[in-house]
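Not sure how to ask, but would you mind making up any protein sequence you like and the tokens describing how it folds?
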Amino acid sequence: MITTGIRRREHLKLLRDVSQALAQSADLEALFAVLHSSVRAALAADTLLLGLYDGVSRTIHVVRQGEFNAALPGGTFPLGHGLTSDVIRTGHSRLIRHWSREGPPVQVQYLTQTPGLPESALTVPLLFGDEVLGVIAAHKYEPDAFDEDDLLVLEAIAAPSAISLHALRTSQQLNGQLRERVSELEAVLGTMADAVLLLDSEHRVVSINRAARELLCADQAGVVLGQPLDQQVWGQWPLGAREIAVALDPMLAALDRGEVPREIEVRLKRRGRRILSFNGAPLMDAHDSVRGSALIVRDVTRPHEIEELKDEMLSVASHDLKTPVTVIRSDAQFLRREIARDTLTMTQIDEGLGAIVRQTERLSRLLSLLLDVSRIESGRFEIYRSFTDLCALASSTIAEVQATTDRHVIQLHAASPTTGYWDERRLQQVLQNLLTNAVKYSPTSERIDVSIEADKTWVTVSVTDQGLGLAPEEAQHVFERFFRARKTRGLEGSGLGLHICKSIVRAHGGRIWVESGGPGLGSSFHFAIPRRLHS
């Protein structure tokens, strides 16, 4: 009891001294210095940070960070979903006793000279009325270092800190117009689609906008504020820190000289193929000295993919169009020559013209496929819903495909009419593609089964053959653009049909998949779409 009383008197005396010191703080640096010393004395905290919140730009500005006796630089980042952001958003304090077990994922990590993350954390809001002005956070590296009493102590320190902070905000020392302009600039940065990182003269990250956090904090990994970009380890950046660091070295050197460097692109191999574009500009002070730099990062993977798609489509078009064009030309030349000689019979004329018609239809199909792929990749692919009887559609499509083969028997299994609002023409395209493939890739088998099953919310269509089948490694890629299974590469086909089928089904809100027992064991293609009963 005596020990508890002594500790309580020490805390009360500390709070009195803190309140007096805070009242005399002339600026944010002085306020942080008071907090740093008082929190270390009260809680024996290893690290501390003071963060201010701008509600207009939804940005958190870390004024300073403290680790043991050292004061470290802060930085700026947009409100996110980490612990600091959660306390600001809710206005409620948080006690984390063992971070590695109960703590939330780290999105923005604060600068520290000690490896690893602190295990114990106290984060309390700076409240002035109902307004959250910012946060104070204290940490220790060992687990279970703080308890509820420690949280109450930090909340008690935060109360006069919020009053002092509000006074500083409204005093003449913090110019209102300047703060408004800074808030506007932060808001502009926050809404930019490009990722922006602001660096100080030592290449340390002092600010990131929302786009930068989303681009660089994939899988909830962390960006380290205050960490030099040319350091070998950038916290937990997921996008290939070393690759970026090596590529940025000459750009950062040019920025240090006050030059505007050329744009560079970095191809990343980790986490899939990504291409990032970096632009930079030096930030000058009033004496034309370099005080830092701004990096703008764009994910240019998609534009590169579109350019590669154009090349692929041109390659496919030049290859696959060559055969029908050659046949049409040779047949037309033959007919023209034989007509001039007056040696053709009507049967020969009919056969020649029939071959030309078939090749023009083949050309038309290929051009339609290429046009659909272009629409899909450019985001202009649309469906037009109308009342559709899926069973009737399947029956008519089966009849059309059945007329093209004498070897196969296509059977429909459907219990009752299945109606809904779908794009009839596009679903016919899916069915026709699946059936045509079943016929094409089942050269030695006869039976092809089409089944339609429906409940109140979903309709599932299956096309099953006993043909060539797919290896497991082929089945997972079969819906990709231009993919051809190994045993089918000698057969006619562009590798686009199933890719387009996938887009059509997805546009209906459904999914498409394939099942196969392996090579020579046939395949079952299925697609399921929501049963939409109203237009």
